[in-house]
Design a protein that fits this description.
With about 100 residues, the chain is mainly α. Helix content is about 75%, strand content about 0%. It is flat and about 75 Å long.
Length: about 100
């Protein structure tokens, strides 16, 4: 009985309905541009500014912007690996210095 009541409560009533929204490429582009600008401002990132500028232009679509983001992620991964290697080296050198 309780399960049936709960099930009936989850069903939409006659007054509620589903509304289909039309999402255009322009609205998606505008939303992406807004999010990029906010992130660029928050992080003070020239790379994100460049991507926002490319997205704002008429000739560049999402494909090119996605390529730019993938390139930026690749560069960040390389930087992180270099930082990790340097950290390991520094920790090893500190251990050697402490042992003396």
């Amino acid at each position: 009985d309780d399960a049936l009541d709960l099930f009936k409560q989850t069903l939409p009533s006659a007054s509620s309905s589903f509304v289909q929204l039309k999402v255009t490429m322009a609205s998606q582009k505008a939303k992406a541009l807004q999010l990029l600008r906010q992130a660029a401002h928050k992080r003070r990132s020239p790379a994100l500014d460049l991507i926002a500028l490319a997205l704002n232009g008429k000739a560049v679509g999402f494909g090119k912007v996605i390529e730019m983001i993938d390139g930026m992620i690749s560069n960040l991964k390389k930087d992180q690996e270099a930082d990790d290697d340097k950290k390991e080296y520094c920790e090893a050198e500190l251990d050697k210095a402490e042992d003396k």
